[in-house]
Design a protein that fits this description.
With 294 residues, the protein is of the alpha/beta class. It has helices at residues 20-28, 37-47, 63-75, 96-104, 117-125, 142-151, 168-179, 203-210, 235-247, 252-263, 267-286, and strands at 4-8, 31-34, 54-57, 79-83, 108-112, 132-137, 158-163, 184-189, 197-202, 218-222. The protein is elongated.
Length: 294
């Protein structure tokens, strides 16, 4: 008989959040694959557990190479426990490759539910949580980051991101540029830890706050795009939407048509707003109007 792959959620901060089943699985697994074996040792000591099974490292650098070894153990009947540093394996952490490989071999996969930074941040954010999407980490390069944000600029579901503290100010500034500075958001820092903090406010305000420097593990929750009737959209918002599409690679003509369809407005009305904005920019910089071709 084949074995079982167990994905175990670990505390994201407070060790007492560890579910009782986690201790039992750590004690009984034949193989424990850990993102960081030193953190695993601290976890087992805190829980008063002495693992009987073999402990191996399983992190981003060796995930592809070690997966076949773990699958072989599963096919041989072993109970393999996968844990990451915090939260649920495979959610922006190692695990996906192993799960996919195990499923392909018809190996049973189960889970020990545990704390989740995504769900905890959503619950604390004060933003709508009936529909949401998790976007993980944004690209590190500024251009790629802006491009990714533009892809979801009109997403109506609440958005959840992970971010490194030293990039938080740039990320919030980019979000403010693409989503609009008045879009509501929450920065959740050090969840369940001693210095837990949830900072809520408009993106522009949060970006200004983050520019002073922020430390700790960060989860950012952003309100989805507002669902508005075309009549409620001002010229500035119409122009912003066209620019977002253009910067994502659409031709201006197609961008204007798409925005007009979204807003339920004639294309001419959106076109006129774009022309007026271009003329205003031209007048401000050179004193002459700029002609825009539809």
């Amino acid at each position: 008989m084949t074995g079982t792959l167990v994905l175990a959620g670990t505390p994201i901060g407070d060790i007492t959040d560890a579910p009782p089943r986690l201790a039992a699985e750590l004690a009984g697994a034949d193989v424990i694959a850990a993102e960081d074996t030193r953190r695993l040792r601290r976890l087992t000591q805190a829980l008063g557990v002495q693992p009987k099974g073999r402990v191996v490292s399983y992190f981003e650098g060796n995930e592809a190479a070690r997966t076949p070894e773990l699958v072989e153990a599963l096919l041989g009947g072993s109970r393999v426990l996968l844990v990451t540093d915090a939260g649920m394996p495979s959610v922006s952490d190692p695990g996906y490759r192993l799960v996919a490989a195990a499923v392909e071999k018809d190996v049973r996969v189960t889970a020990v539910p545990g704390p989740s930074a995504v769900l905890t941040a959503l619950a604390l954010s004060g933003l709508p949580v009936d529909r949401f999407c998790f976007e993980g980490f944004l690209p590190r390069k500024a251009g790629e980051r802006l491009s990714r944000l533009r892809e979801v600029a009109e997403e109506r579901r609440t958005l959840v991101y992970f971010e490194a503290p030293h990039r938080l100010d740039d990320t919030l500034a980019a979000m403010s540029e693409v989503f609009g500075g008045d879009r509501r958001a929450a920065v959740c820092r050090e969840l369940t830890k001693t210095y837990e903090e949830v900072r809520r406010g408009p993106l522009a305000e949060l970006a200004e706050w983050a520019a002073e420097g922020v430390r700790g593990e960060i989860t950012v929750v952003v309100e989805g795009a507002p669902e508005r009737d075309g009549g409620e959209l001002g010229a500035e918002e119409l122009v912003r939407r066209v620019r977002v599409r253009e910067e994502a690679g659409e031709r201006r003509k197609e961008a204007i048509a798409a925005v007009a369809a979204e807003a339920g407005l004639p294309k001419r009305e959106v076109f006129d707003a774009v022309v007026a904005a271009k003329n205003a920019e031209g007048a401000g910089s050179s004193g002459s109007a700029t002609r825009v071709t539809p």
